[in-house]
Every structure is written in structure tokens, then in C-alpha cells.
Amino acid sequence: MPKTLVIVVATLAWLSLAPAPPAVHTVTHSGTHSGTHPGPPVQSQAHSGAASSPLMRPGHAVRYWTPARQAAAANPPETVAAPRRGTADVAGTRRHSVPASKRLTPGSDANGYARVRRPYTRAADSRITGRLFFVNSGGQGDSCSASVVRSAAHTLVVTAAHCVYSVPAGAAAGRWHQRFAFVPAYDGRADTVGEREPYGRWGGRRAWKPDGYTGLTGGDWNSVHDIALIEVGPRKRTLQATVGAFTPMRSQGGRHTVVTRGYPGVPGRQPYDGRDQLWCLGRTRPATGMVLGATLPAALLAGRSGTALPPGRLETHNCHLHKGHSGGPWLIRGTRDLVGVLSAGKEDGYAAGNAVANALNAEGYGAIVRQADPSGVYDALSITLKRPRKPVKRGATATVTATVRLRGLMAAAHVPVTLTLPPGTTLTATSGGCVHEPAKAACTIPAVHPRRPVRVTATIAVARNVRAPLRVVAHVASSALDPSQADNTSAVRLRTRP
């Protein structure tokens, strides 16, 4: 089975290196960076809370990350394990990480990537995406990818948890990274600072990660908790007002067509050196894999007969994501909703590359956004059921309409709606993706967006012998992020006539 790695340039506890000192304020050229996990993946969902870093000084990070330090960040020694025997070039034939038949990106390379057209200021998606610089827990200069996410605060950047927190070599517990500086639309090939950082550097003030992300077990590379938020410091205008933001989409993964963006590569390495923003088009499916049962809490193992991963992750085999792209956005093609954040993928050199992202679910993203953006309204779903204005003739049919609305800052994917009928009625037809029994329909709305209502209609046959008004109930399921679930259920009474 191919090994999997965290797609970040970061210090991990399991590497065989001397213990690292506490974080210092110099960038070195000998930092330790990502490699392959030596054992089976570990999955834990024991926590649903969030932890925050100590307050930081945004101005210090802005001044610290000079162009010279940016160029020196993430310049690693050879610490990434080589591919397995049989996966390298054979008889002069170069192995492609993504076979040509699976590459969907126009003009892509062997890994499925293509360069984003310059200048990055021209398009909203490339403006909102940027490079995140930081000093990791081992004291080395590092970088990931990140993007601005829609929030009430207008100051939040989303990335992977292993980009904000890790366990230094030789340590028993994780430490927060320091001196975060987000550079939207970063262009490492530009001649001037103004062109390289067209919207400036935005220093981090605080970071959040789910409690379930520990930084242990190879960086929790197979964890649904590998997602984080960073609040940037204030300027004359907010970050969101300056470059825009992606709308987060609450989901548990699933099948989508996505565009991913970011800054893969490290200086001096091939095929990417981190100076270019790249993109890749991919089709996702629920991520597959196994967990190491012996490492899971007993409470999680109770009643489990297998070791399949819980939902919350997406993978694509159309893009082979490289180091430095960790934390990059996965966007629904067409709507540009942020459906995932890059977390992991196979190590470089395998002939069948992949990439894995964490979905923005209530357990991971929800836990951190509640703390990072307490005034924001997320996942506020409601449903309203309407009946015919006139009484329904007994023995005839009637149509009821359920309207689902979403208020706030977040979109929602695969939204469940149920319709329940009383005795004396039969469900004969429904609109949309519904599975129905005679007295009940279970529907799934592909996506609901703020200020864009979605309607589900149902045709109901009324028996000839009914008398009393008939109560029809509609319900939409939301998450714990919904500030009030009182409007998640709606009921009407069908009046009848002979």
C-alpha cells in the first residue's frame, strides 16, 4: 500500500532528528520538513471543542517576513522518503503521478497541475488564495497555502491544522507555530515587493485548531481535525474587504467537481519551488482508508465491527498534491464554494498520485469557527411548508411545497429534508432527489446557499373516507452551528371537502 504524507513543510515528532529548541526568530536552511508516515493512519474524533494559540503581535510578523526570509523559508534537507521500489523511472520511462487519462486540468503537467495566469490580482480566486509563512514548532521558517474565508469578522484565513501546530522532534507534546504572515496573491517571480505582495503582508493575531488535532502520530495526517483558522491583524481595510473571501460550505465530503489552488513546492526543489500559484481540476469521492483500532479510545470503538473511516474527508486521483500546498482551498467548480482544505496525499514519485482534503463539517470547522467568529451566523437553516389555498377534494390529489432557506455566512451541501404524511394520505410524487414510501419522503438537496431558497414539492393522494384535517410535516436537518432549530420543522393542515 503506498505511503501517505502530510503535504506541508513542517517539523514532525516522529523524524529521527535531534531535539529541536523552542521556536526562535531566525530562518534556517536546515529545517526538518514533511516525510512519510511510518505506520498505519490514525483517526480520532474524541473531541469536538477547539483550542486557540496565545495572542501574537501581527506587526512583528509583518516586519519579520522580509523578501529574503520568504525566499529562504522551507528550504529542507533530504528528509522525504523515496518512493517504493518499482515506482521510479524504469528503462528511461518517466512515471506520471497522474496518468494522462485522469488529468482534467487543461495544459496540466504530469501531476495534474497548471500555472494560474498572471497577474494573480486579475481573478477573484487567485486574489483570495495566498501563501502562509510562519516559524514552525522546531524554529524553522516554513510555508503553507491558505485562503480567506467569509466571516462576520472579515479577518479569517483558513488552512490546515498542521500548518499552525506540530510536535517538535524529541518533544512529547505539540506547540503552536509563530509569526504567521499571510500574503494573498503571492507571486514569487515578481521583480518588486509591490508586485510580489500586491495586497501586502497580513500578520497573524491568533490561531485556532480543533481539540482533536494533537500534532502526534505523524502530524495527524489522516485526521478529520486537520483544519485551522487564523485571525489576521487590522489595517485600514479588513482582509475580506481588500481581496474578497470564499463562502464556506458545510458538508461531510462526498462527490464534487473541484478546483484546488495553492503554492506547492519548496525553494530549490523540482518540479515546484513555491513561487507560483498552481491550480488543478479534480473529481472527488469520499476518502477511503483504515484506522488503527488499537490507538482509538475505547468509547469510539464500542459497537464498531470494522475500522472504516468516518465521513468528513474527500479525495481526488486527478491531482497529486505536493508539499507546500497544505491548507489550500478546494472550491466547487462553478459556485466557488469552499468545500474542503487540503490535508494529505501520497508521497512524491508514486505512479498513481492522489490528494485528500478535509470537509468543512460541524465537528472540525464548526468547532473552531464558533470561537474564531463568535458573532457570525452559520448553518441557520429553516423550512416553510405551504398547502393549497382551497380545501382538497377527497379522493383527489394535492400539492404541498416545502421551501428551504439558509441565513448567514455558510452554504450547506447534501441537506436532508423529510416529509411525513398522516393516515388517510399517500405520497405519489416528489420533486428533486427523494426516496419515498407511501407516507414519508426522504429528500437530499444538493446545495443550499444564503438568500437562495430551494423548493421541494410533493403530490399527495387523499383517501375518499377521510374527515378530519390532515397534518403534513416537513423537517430540514441542520448542525449544531444553527443558532436556533425552532424553524427547522414546519407543519400544515390540509382541509378536505366531499
Description of the molecule:
- The chain folds into two domains: 50-75 and 97-287 and 311-372, Beta Barrel (Thrombin, subunit H); 381-494, Immunoglobulin-like (Sandwich), CATH 2.60.40.290.
- 9% of the residues lie in helices and 33% in strands.
- By secondary structure, it is mainly beta.
- Residues 1-47, 75-95 and 290-308 have low confidence and may be disordered.
- The protein has helices at residues 58-64, 67-72, 124-128, 193-196, 216-220, 239-243, 298-301, 365-372; strands spanning 4-6, 50-52, 114-115, 129-135, 141-148, 156-159, 165-166, 175-176, 178-184, 202-210, 228-232, 249-250, 257-262, 278-283, 285-286, 313-316, 329-332, 338-346, 355-359, 380-386, 392-393, 397-407, 411-420, 425-430, 434-437, 440-448, 454-462, 470-476, 489-494, 496-497.
- A hairpin with an 8-residue loop joins strand 18 (338-346) and strand 19 (355-359).
- Strands 1, 3, 13, 14, 15, 16, 17, 18 and 19 form a nine-stranded antiparallel beta sheet that branches. Strands 4-5-6-11-10-9 form a six-stranded antiparallel beta barrel. Strands 12, 23, 25, 26, 28 and 29 form a six-stranded mixed beta sheet that branches.
- The longest helix is centred in the last third of the chain and has 8 residues, at 365-372.
- Residues 24-37, 71-83 have a biased composition (Low complexity).
- GO terms for molecular function: serine-type endopeptidase activity.
- This is DUF11 domain-containing protein.
- Keywords: Signal.
- Residues 381-493 form the DUF11 domain.
